[in-house]
Design a protein that fits this description.
Number of helices: 17
Mean pLDDT: 84
Radius of gyration: 25 Å
Structural class: alpha/beta
Strand content: 5-15%
Strand order of the largest sheet: 2-3-4-1-5
Shape: globular
Distance between the termini: 55 Å
Number of strands: 7
Oligomer: single chain
Order of helices and strands: HHHEHEHEHEHHEHEHHEHHHHHH
Length: 400
Amino acid sequence: MDLSQPLAYRMMPQTLEEYVGQEHILGKDKILYRTIKADRLSSIILWGPPGCGKTSLAKVISNTTKYKFIKLNAVTSGVADIKNAIVDAQNLLLNPSGKCILFIDEIHRFNKLQQDALLPYVEKGVVILIGATTENPYFEVNKALISRSMVFKLNELSIQNVYAVLKNAINKEEGLKGYNIKIEDSTLENIAITSNGDVRTALNGLEVAVLTTPIEKDGYIHITDEIAKECVQTRKAVFDKGGDSHYDNISAFIKSIRGSDPDAAVFYLARALNAGEDPMFMARRIVISASEDVGMANPMAILSEAAIYVATSKKSNASYNAINTAIEDVSNKDTGTIPMHIRNAPVDGMEKEGYGVGYKYPHDYPNHYIEQQYLPDKMIGTKYFVPDENIDTSNFGKIN
């Protein structure tokens, strides 16, 4: 192992047994695990957030398969590169099987022409495609390719998963074992929390901390919470404003308002603001919700005579306190993931991944309310909005 390579590269797993996380698709009884082990892989799309292990899984496959393995990056490759890969695969002198596994990282960056160039070779079985993407493949990948591939959704890694990788990095020769590091388990856990499920971010932060901290008189590099926090920086933005998670978050926000759960509504508002969402966008969504979901049941919720209404109202800072507390949580805690049933599911096929499955539309039920979960599992029971004595709750709908 070349120790001059970045730590994140050196810690990439070589076998399925070394791979950490994604047990929902890589458990020993799961089809993806079995097909990789048997070297019977068909074309697949790996979809998940940055640092969740898509490229690492492709690396494991490359070490497992008997087929020629070719890697392309959609940012730097074009149709000519695809055709060259096909020519190499069909050279029976150099590749007797006549087929290859073609891994395309960031496949969503291929345009329609580039994706179409792949299609006939995927159909013929010359190419076993592995596409990796952070974007929703049902939006970004050619429908013909999707129909000929199995889509596997990779989740962000848990704190325990990232902690396990960091612990391995400290103890392995190809990691940081040669540096004589002293670091508390709680500090490693804090790095895992701050990385927000991105193991690459966690490893990069740990490496920077080790390489920039001087050796002390006892011969060790001491990595404290303060050093780790400085090197990993603040908790990453919860979602990409332009990506799929943006729509999941706004979907959860609107459904929490519709479902009369103020704590969940404030939580998803905090997630949006923490990620840099335009406050005016959120304000427009609230106005739309006031019109569609409240309507004439409470006309004053729709901005008419808003200035006078606000000026003459009793005053309370309960909402102000609620959003401040929620922003503090999403900035510094592992708050979990949006429940699948309230995520955005605009495209056919996403229900196979669990998106939107089981959502109950409150307006279909008596009093326009139905009990269901809005907050992530890890935040169930959290209270952000606590009405004080100046808040008349008699006009409120159901509040959890």
